[in-house]
Amino acid sequence: MGRAEKTETGWRGSREGWLEAAYGALVSEGVDSVKIMPLAERLKLSRTSFYWFFKDREALLSALAQMWEARTTTPLVAATTDYAETRTEAMLNVIACFLRPETFDAKLEFAMRGWGLKDPAILSRIAEADTRRLAALADMLERWGHDPLDADVRARTIYLVQIGYIAMQSDETLETRLTRIPNYVEIYTGHPPAPREIARFRARFGQ
Predict the structure, then answer these.
(1) Residue 172 burial (CB count, 10 A)
(2) To the nearest 10°, the Cα dihedral for 44, 49, 55, 57?
(3) Cα distance between residue 119 and residue 96, in whole Å
(4) Taking the alpha carbons of 117, 153, 172, 84 in that order, is the dihedral positive or negative?
(5) Residue 172 to residue 65: CA distance in whole angstroms
(6) String of b and e for 91-108 (b: at least 16 CB within 10 Å)?
(7) pLDDT tens sequence across 70-111
(8) Tens digit of pLDDT for each residue in 144-171?
(9) Cα separations (Å) of 199 from 81, 195, 204?
(10) How far apart are CA 104 and CA 13, in angstroms?
(11) How far, CA to CA in Å, does 144 sit from each of 52, 73, 86, 96?
C-alpha cells in the first residue's frame, strides 16, 4: 500500500482534532487560513476525512464561533454571578476570569474581532456578545448597590479596558498585572479591596 493510499484510507482523526487545528490556524493566521486542505496537511489526514465530522467549511467556521462563545462569553457571564461576600470580591472574580486563558481566551477573542472585520454576520455576533457581557457586568454592579447609570458606566470601563488589552496585544507579566489589581478594583467599584481579598486572589494564581 502506497503512502498516498494510506493517507486516504487510514485514520480519520476526530472532530475535536479538526476543530483544534482550525483554532490554531485562526488565532495564528486569521480566518482566511481556515481551509480544509491546509488543515488536512497539518493533521496528516486525507481531505475527505474532514467530511466525516463537518458538512463543509461553513460548518467548521460555525463550530469555531461556538467555541469562541464557550471560551469567552459563557465563563465571563458566569463569573459575574460567582459567590462573593463583597463587591470588591465580586470584581476580583471577574478579573480572575479575564486573566485565565482557560476562562477567557484572549487569542481567540482577538482573532474573532479580526474575522468580524471581514464578515458582517460574525461582526453582528460579536456585537451581541459585547451587549451580553456588558449587561452581565452592569447587573452585577447593580446587585452591589450601584445605580443603573453608574453601573453602566463602570461596566463599560471594566470591559473596554479588557478589550483594549486584547486589541493592543499588551504583553505584561502576571506579576505586573497582579500588582495593579487593587487599583483597578477601586476604580471599577469605588472601593479598595481588603488585603485578605487580594491575598486570596493572588493564591488563585499561585502567588
Answers:
(1) 11
(2) 20
(3) 31
(4) negative
(5) 27
(6) bbbbbbbbbeeebbbbbb
(7) 999 999 999 999 999 999 999 999 999 999 999 999 999 999
(8) 999 999 999 999 999 999 999 999 998 8
(9) 21, 6, 9
(10) 27
(11) 50, 21, 8, 18
Q: What is the pLDDT of residue 11?
A: 66
3-state helix, strand, coil in the chain (%, to 5): 75, 0, 25
Exposure string over 22-57, b if 16+ CB within 10 A, otherwise e: bbebbbeeebeebebeebbeebebbeebbeebbeee
Residues across the chain: 207
- To the question of pTM greater than 0.85 for the whole model, the response is yes
Residue by residue, what is the 3-state secondary structure of 118-141?
Answer: CCHHHHHHHHHHHHHHHHHHHHHH
Q: What's the grid cell of residue 138?
A: 452592569
CATH code of the domain occupying 3-63: 1.10.10.60
Residue with cell 457571564: 77
- Cell 491575598 belongs to 199
Ranges of each domain in the chain:
3-63, 72-204
Cα 123 from chain centroid? 15
Q: Residues 6 or more apart from 119 whose CB is under 8 A from it?
A: 31
Q: How much is the pLDDT for 27? A: 98
pLDDT at 7 over 60: no
